[in-house]
Specification:
It is built from three helices and 13 strands; from the N terminus they run αααβββββββββββββ. By secondary structure, it is an alpha+beta fold. It has two domains: 88 residues, no CATH class; 129 residues, Immunoglobulin-like. A five-stranded antiparallel sheet has the order 6-3-9-1-13, with no helix packed on it. Strands 2, 4, 5, 7 and 8 form a five-stranded antiparallel sheet that branches. Strands 10-11-12 form a three-stranded antiparallel sheet. The longest helix has 40 residues. The radius of gyration is 34 Å and the shape is elongated.
């Protein structure tokens, strides 16, 4: 007796599409060899009463070719990103032990050594107050009130001593500044030359960060100036 179509191993177009979906969403990806094996099996076992038309064959081949191209391009992009990351790590490693200009006022100083900071005064100021703190305890170490400043960059120098003139231990400190502008006291951002302690990769921001203090990190792209 002749078997019915449903009793045979022939695949209809709908059945083949379901089989492809099962393979695609399985644990293993459909590679080139697996695709060719599946495609050959389809040709050999397609239902003669309901064969897949030429357009469907061409569509499947085009889709596979497109996926292979995207996969290859993704691999090339991954290699390029990894190469750029390695280059950035090497560039950052060369900064360890050097001084970089960073915003925020963090720096390593004390021990009677001069530490330089700076502020930008677009309109000048009637007076400037700058302070040095211990960032861990918040203790005020030093404070100085200076006179009027012209518009532009103003330098702030700390001699590594406390308010009594005693030398403070070498360590991590933070410099802040305020300026009287048009009769009002305003906080002014401070930039300092800080020592680079270490270099690390920030996966969330996908960029190199430099440690310039105790658990204080800045992005390599935010560095404005590099010193010795």
């Amino acid at each position: 007796m002749v078997s019915t179509v449903t009793d045979t191993a022939f695949l209809t177009s709908a059945q083949y599409n379901e089989q492809q979906k099962a393979v695609t969403y399985g644990e293993d990806e459909l590679g080139q060899e697996a695709f060719l094996t599946l495609f050959t099996a389809q040709l050999q076992n397609q239902n003669p009463l309901d064969p897949m038309d030429n357009e469907a064959f061409v569509s499947q081949l085009a889709e596979f070719s497109s996926l292979e191209g995207i996969k290859g391009m993704q691999g090339s992009l991954d290699n390029m990103v990894n190469g750029m990351r390695q280059d950035q790590m090497v560039a950052g490693a060369n900064l360890v032990g050097k001084k970089v200009q960073v915003a925020g006022g963090h720096f390593n100083g004390g021990n009677g050594d001069i530490t330089q900071g700076s502020i930008d005064l677009e309109y000048g100021a009637q007076s400037v107050i700058f302070s040095v703190y211990d960032p861990a305890s918040g203790e005020l170490i030093y404070r100085d009130t200076q006179g009027a400043r012209l518009p532009g960059r103003a330098e702030l120098n700390w001699n590594g001593r406390d308010r009594s003139g005693e030398i403070v231990p070498e360590g991590s400190y933070m410099m802040t500044a305020s300026a009287v502008i048009n009769g009002k006291l305003e906080t002014v951002p401070v930039t300092t030359m800080a020592n680079v302690r270490s270099v690390s990769w920030d996966p969330s921001a996908q960029q190199i960060t430099l440690e310039v203090g105790d658990n204080v990190f800045v992005a390599l792209t935010d560095i404005e100036r590099i010193g010795i």
